[in-house]
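Figure 2 data, in text form.
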Amino acid sequence: MKANSYVKVSSWQEAYRLMKESPRNKILGGGLWLKKGNVEVDKLIDLSRLGLNKIEDKGEFINIGALVTLRQLEKSDLIKSIGGGVISEAVSKIIGPAFRNSATVGGTVYGKLGFSDLLTALLLFKVNVVFYPAAEIPLEDFLKTPGFYDGVLTHITIKKCDAKAFFKKVTYTSLDYPVVNVGVRKCEKYRIVVGSRPAVAAIAEKASAYLNEGGNDFAKAAEMAVEELKFSDTVTAKAEYKKELARVYILRGLEEVSK
């Protein structure tokens, strides 16, 4: 990526005005994927003066600023208190501490990264994505919507839930992208999530509904989940292999959270 200019903004209004000024003006996230792109940006907009690097307890919800790093999520006692620390566990497996000290929540969420372990873990909970000037969108709806939202992502909110949760990332080595990642949680209701299919993480709606409507055959639920979600070949694994991995770990996850 090449940027013609760099602007460190001092207000939401300035950030939004610059973003709307031209489709070639872009918000800067963690900056770790800039070398992966070959697009030319007119103005690169830095939000670091806007106090978005905080994790805050808001009673029923936890607010996570867009510039909170994955390392902050990993180490936060507040985040560890949700679902047995499944979010912290998920991000702790991403490359290494140096990477996690730079990668941000906002960059990961807004980028809708298909291989993201964080998105799979977040989808286990009721998470909203909050934009300036005025929009709050459920994460699952945001991820389903093509393209990008016309606003500045300020933070996400997570509704607290006394959940039992399970997360599994399958890789060939610790530094690889995931072949597949799987999340399961039970917080009154069940939720099954699969990511890196290689499409962006998604909830297995039919399988989750089957369990929440009284179904108790976990093997059937796991099979329903992999049938309703789409899996595709990648350079590292065939679709059928990804599908079988997901089925096995969904079953294990359901058994784990139901103990």
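Caption note: The first strand starts at residue 2 and ends at 8.
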